[in-house]
Design a protein that fits this description.
The protein has 4 helices and 10 strands; from the N terminus they run ββββααββββαβαβ. The protein is of the alpha+beta class. Strands 4-3-2-1-8-7-6-5 form an 8-stranded mixed sheet, covered by helices on one side.
């Protein structure tokens, strides 16, 4: 089961990185971290392999800091996800970015799904590939567009497919695209489970 965490801070790791380790926190399991410099999961960041041994005081980030984090994600590349058999062009269609290993500059380590409001990116839902860990960048709560909705409206097809999650949306789009051999694909979007509690994967509009 994937739990949503909050990214607390970036600190050093004993691999030599000064700020490559991101610390996460969730109410159930407390603190954990992942070092993007050496691709290492750290279950106890404030007791093992950390530059700091004291959990930070939670602070509210300024609008400028949030925007800087969003821009940082936008600078991440769009590369294939072999383990999901998803091609780069599929991710690009949905404006999904991929964080890569700082060691080789190519191995995917995290995936960032855009969250939009009125067609403007306001944040990202991030998923760590090595561990079942999810966190948010920017704003992902409240009023927002449904994932894939802009692409569905732009497609202008006569059918609308609804999937359970973002990965499902990507996989279905790619499959439909392949089946149509480059033709017009059916529109598709993914409802947010928190916003559509009674609809589920079988609902329709």
């Amino acid at each position: 089961m994937t739990r949503e965490s909050v990214c607390i801070e970036k600190i050093g790791h004993d691999c030599g990185s000064s700020d490559g380790m991101q610390v996460f926190h969730d109410e159930q399991s407390g603190y954990s971290a992942f070092c993007f410099a050496c691709s290492t999961y750290v279950p106890d960041p404030y007791g093992t392999g950390a530059a700091s041994t004291t959990p930070p005081v939670r602070i509210t980030k300024s609008a400028e800091q949030v925007q800087a984090e969003i821009v940082e994600v936008m600078d991440c590349p769009v590369v294939p996800l072999p383990e999901r058999k998803l091609r780069a062009e599929t991710l690009a269609h949905f404006n999904v970015h991929v964080g890569v290993s700082e060691q080789d500059g190519s191995t995917p380590t995290s995936v960032f799904f855009p969250v939009t409001r009125d067609k403007q990116v306001i944040g990202y839902k991030a998923r760590l590939l090595a561990e079942k860990r999810m966190w948010s960048v920017g704003s992902t709560k409240g009023d927002k567009d449904l994932f894939g909705w802009q692409q569905a409206m732009a497609a202008g097809g006569r059918k609308l497919f609804i999937t359970e999650g973002e990965y499902d949306a990507l996989a279905l789009y790619q499959a439909l695209k392949d089946k149509s051999a480059g033709g017009q694909c059916c529109p598709l979007y993914t409802p947010d489970a928190a916003d559509e509690p009674s609809r589920g994967a079988s609902g329709g509009v």
